[in-house]
Amino acid sequence: MSKVTTRVGTRKLNQNQAVAAVASASVAAAVSSASASVSSVAAAAGVAGAAAAGAGSAAGLPSSVSPALSFQVTARCSTTKARVSRLVLPHSTVDTPVFMPVGTQGTMKGLTSEQVESLGCQLILGNTYHLGTRPGPALLQQLGGLHKFMNWNRSLLTDSGGFQMVSLLALAEITEEGVRFQSPHDGSMLMLTPEKSMELQNVIGADIMMQLDDVVSSLISGPRVVEAMHRSIRWLDRCIEAHSAPHKQSLFAIIQGGLDNNLRTQCVAEMVKRDLPGYAIGGLSGGEQKDPFWRVVDHCTNLLPENKPRYLMGVGYAVDLVVCSALGVDMFDCVFPTRTARFGTALVFEGSLPLKHRKYANDFAPIEADCTCSTCQNYTRAYLHSIVTREEVSCHLVSIHNIAFQMRLMRGIRQAIELDQFPAFVHRFFAAQFPDRNFPQWAIDALRAVNIDLAPGSAPSSTSEAMPEPMQQN
Amino acid sequence: MLAGFGSFSLLASIPRAILVHSARCTLPARPSSVFSDYLYYHYCCCSSSSLSSSSHYQAMSSFSTAAANNPATAAPVAGPRFQVLHSDQSASGSASGSSTGARTGRLEFNAPDDAHPPRAMLTPSSLFCARLGTPLSLTMDMCRAEPLLAGFHDSLSLLAQNGEQVMRQYGKGIHKFMHADEYIFYMSTRDVLAATVDGMGGDKQVAVDVATGRIKVEPEGFVKYLDVAMPDMVASLSDNIVGGTAGTKRIEKSIQRTDKFLDDTLDRISKLPEGSPAKNVAILAVVQGSQDKASRIRAASTAASKLVFGFLLEGFNTGEDQLQRLELIEAAVSQLPHDKLRVIHGLSAPEHILQAVSRGIDLFDSAYPVMATTEGRALVFDFAGLTAPGWDGYAGRSMLDLWDSRNDADTNPFLPGCTCYACTRHTRAYVHHLLNTHEMLGSVLLMSHNVHHFLSFFAAIRKTIEQGTFVQHRDAFLQRYTAQPFVRPVVTSAPQ
Q: Which of A9, A398, A456, B18 is most buried by a 10 A CB count?
C-alpha cells in the first residue's frame, strides 16, 4: 500500500487548485488503500464532499480543505470579527464557535458517552499526558485507540501533553530536545519530545492533535518568552515530520509569544507558512491580566488566515467565550463547567448559582427555567441543594446542566451571528451578567475594538434592532 | 390460604375499603381480586392489640356511603398491598430435611397518577440503596436503563437533613422530588450502608446521622413527614442494637422502645384527618430481640398482633453467629402471619439471601452490590444457570476484581452475555482504567452492572420457587460458591 503523504505545506497552488488536489488525493488515498478504515474513507468522502460544496458555495466566504478536515465559514457578523463555520472531521461535523468539554482521562466526570452525546457535544478533549501514562500507548494501540476504548463515536481533540507536564510535575526541565521530567510512578527520568508526543497522539487517534509547544507562563516576560516562541516553531516542524497519520488526524500549530504582540506576529508568520489545518492561540489563560489577554487574542485573529479554524486554548468562562467569539475565535476548551459542578455551582445566563447556599433549600424552580437539559426538566434547586457535595450523583446532574449551558450559550452565539444580530446578543448577555451594568473594563475595550459599544450605565445603543430570539434548542 | 389472616378472616369476603385521598383524583376501576389480599386499614385503633369494632365498622360505613353516593369512585382502591403468589414446594430432596418457607409474592402500592400503573414489584427481591433521596452512583436515567429496578430504600437522612418543612413547601412528595414517580420508595431508621452506633436514641426518639450532625426523630415529626413526603412504605421508628451482643436490659429496652414508637405512630396516623396521605403509607412493625431467641419470639408475637402492613426483622449482621442467625430468623418468622410482608436488613450476600428466603423472608436491602461496586468488583455468580448462563470462567468465584491488572487489555464485558448497560457498551479494560484513574464513571458502570446482576439473581430465585426447584439450586449454589457442605453454616461471605 502506498502511503500518500499530502504535504499541503509544500505545494504552491492557488486555493482552488489546492482544494481540488487535496480532495482527490484524499479520495485516491482512501480508495487505493486496501485496508483503509471506514472512518478514513468516510472522512475523505466527507472532506471531499465538503470541499466540492465549499469550492463553489457561499460566495466569497473563507474555506479550506485539509486531508482530514474541512472548514467552511457560513456566516459572518457584519459588526465584529465573529463568524459561524462548519468544521468537518472524520468522526463528526462541528458547528463553530464551539466549546469543547474536557474529558481528561477518557471520561467526563462520571457522565456516560451517551449522556455527553445527548447534550449535543460533537467534539471533546482528551489529555495526552494522562492517557499516555494510563493506560499508556501500548495498551491504547492494542485496544484500537481512544474512540474505541471509551466508546465515544464523535470527534476527539488531544493536547500535546506538554502543558500538563509543566504544570503538574514538580521536576520538569525543558531542553531543545524536549521536556525532561520525572515519572510520578517510578521516579525515573523520561523525555517528552515532539516525536514522542506525535507518537502518543497518533496512537490515541484523535481527530485533531496539537503540536508540542514550549509553553511558558504568561506572567513571564523577557528572553525566555522569545526562546520559547522560536523553539515552538522548531518543534512544530519536528511534529509535522513525525506525524504519521495526516490523512486521518489534523495537526494544529500553537501560536506562542507571550503577551508581546511583536513576538506573536513573528510566530504567526512562520507557522502559517507551514499551512496547517488549524491554529491555536496558546500561552494564555494562565492568570494573566485580562487587558493584555484580549489584545493578544485580537492581534492573533487579525493575522491568522480566515479560512482556518482558530482555537483559543483553556478559555471557557461565559464572558470570555462571548468576547473572544466577537474577536474571531472558533474553538474553545475548559475544565471549568465540569470542575465547578463538583462543588455544586450551576452556570446560568446571568452568572452562576452556588447551589450549596442555604437560600436554595426551598427554591423549587429548576436551575434555569428555559433550559431543556434533563436536570432542569426533572429536578429542583432545592433537591440539588440537598445533595450537592454530599452525593456523587449531584456531580453528574450539575455537570449535565453545565455542559448543556455551555452548548446552549454557543448555540445562541452562532444563531445570533447567523441572523446578523450578534451585537444585540452581546448586549443582552452582558446586561444579564452584570445587572448593575458595571461591566469589566477589559470587556468594554475588547468589544469596542470590534465595533460594539458596551457603554456602562446606559441602555444598548442599538435599541431599534430586534432582539434575537431566545436561544433555540436543537 | 386464609390461615394467616387470623383475626381478620371474617373480613376476607368484603371488598377493599375505599381510600379517599385528597391529593389524588379518582382512581381507575380495578376488578376485585380473587386472591386473598391482605386488607390494609388506615382507620385503625392501635392502642391495644385487638381491633376495636366500633372504629372498624365506622370505616366500613364510610365505604358504603361513598360507594352509594358516587358509583364512579366505588371502584376498589389501589392501596398498599401484598399477596403471596406461590409457596415453595421443593421440600424433599433437601438434606436439611425440611421444606422451605420460601414464597413468591407481589408487592403493590399506589399509582403516581391516573396515567401510570401502580408502583409494584415481585418478591423475593430488593430495593436499591438511596441516600438523601438519591440512588447511589446512578442518575435516574441510568436507573431507568435497568428494567429490573423497582424502587429505592433510603434511611431517614433526607428527613433529618431537610426536616419536613422543605417537603411541605414543595407539596409534591418525595417521588417527584427525586424524579422517581414510578418507583417504590421505602425508608427505614437503619442506614444499611453505615455502621451506626447503637443506643444513641432514647425513650422518645431515634437518632439519625447526617452531615450536619446527629438529628433526633420522634413519632410526631415522623408522621408529619410521612404526610408530606408520601413514601410508599416505611419501617416504624426503631431502637436498633448494632453493636453485637447485648445484655438483657438493653434488649428489653430496644423491644419496648420500638413497640412504643409503633403504637405512638399508628395512633397519630389514626387521628389524622380523613384523606391524609400518611394514612396511605404502608407501615412495617420492627421485630427486635438481638441474639436472644426468646426475646425474638416475644417481640415477633407482639408485632404480629399489630395492625401493620408487614414486618421488618432488625438487628441482623451485627456480629451474630451465622448458625444462630438462621435460628433467630426462623423463630421470629414462626410468629408472623403468612400473608404479610417480611423484610430483613443487613443480609444481602447471595448465600445469606438464599438462607433467609428459605425461611420466608420477602425483601432485602442492596448493600451487597453497593459494597461490591465500592471495592471495584463486578458480580458474576451464577444461580440456577440463569444469571450467568454458559459462563464458566469463574468456577467458584462470585466476583470479578476490576482492579486486577490482568484486566487491563481485556475487551470482554464484565460478564459475557450480560444485558446490562455496562456490559453492552464497555469493556473490562476501560473500567480497569477508570478505577486506576479514580474516575467516577468506573463506579457508575460497575453499579449499573451490579444492580442488574443482583436483581436478576432474585428473578432467578423466584423462577425456581415457582418451578419447585429452589432447594436444589440453593444447595448447588452454596456448594459451589461457599465451598462448604450445605448443611453447615456459611463461614464467610467474602468473595474470592
A: A398
Q: Which residues in chain A touch residue B440, judged by CB atoms under 8 angstroms apart?
A: 107, 109-110, 392, 395-396
Cβ of A386 within 8 Å of Cβ of B161? The answer is yes
- What distance in Å separates residue A42's CA from the closest CA in chain B? 23
| Comparison of pLDDT for A43 and A389, the residue scoring more | A389
From the options 3.40.50.2000, 3.40.710.10, 3.20.20.105, 3.40.220.10, give the CATH code of B81-88+99-364: 3.20.20.105
Question: pTM to 2 decimals?
Answer: 0.84
A159 among known catalytic residues: yes
pLDDT of residue A91: 97
Catalytic residue among A214, A260, A275, A333: A333
- The residues on A that touch B, with CB distances below 8 Å, are 105-115, 130, 134-135, 139, 142-143, 149-151, 361-362, 364, 374, 378-380, 382-383, 386-387, 390-397, 400
DSSP for B271-318?
TSPTT-GGGGSEEEEEE--TT-HHHHHHHHHHHHTS--SEEEE-S-SS
User: Under an 8 A CB cutoff, do A378 and B136 touch?
Assistant: no
Please indicate whether, in this complex, the C-beta atoms of B433 and A393 are within 8 angstroms of each other. no
Contacts by residues B193-199 (CB-CB < 8 Å, ≥ 24 positions apart): B193/B129, B193/B131, B193/B136, B193/B367, B193/B370, B194/B155, B195/B242, B196/B240, B196/B242, B197/B242, B197/B243, B198/B240, B198/B241, B198/B242, B198/B243, B198/B246, B199/B241, B199/B243, B199/B250
pLDDT at A58: 57
For chain A, the structural domain boundaries read 10-88, 98-334, 341-449
CB contact under 8 A, A392 and B439: no
Asked whether the beta carbons of residue B132 and residue A361 sit closer than 8 angstroms, the reply is no
Residue B61 pLDDT > 60 = no
A141-193: per-residue pLDDT in tens? 999 999 999 999 999 999 998 777 667 766 678 999 999 887 777 778 888 99
What are the b/e assignments for B260-290, b being 16+ CB within 10 Å?
ebbbbbbebbbebeeebbbbbbbbbbbbbbb
CATH architecture of A98-334: Alpha-Beta Barrel (3.20)
Q: Is A159 annotated as a binding residue?
A: yes
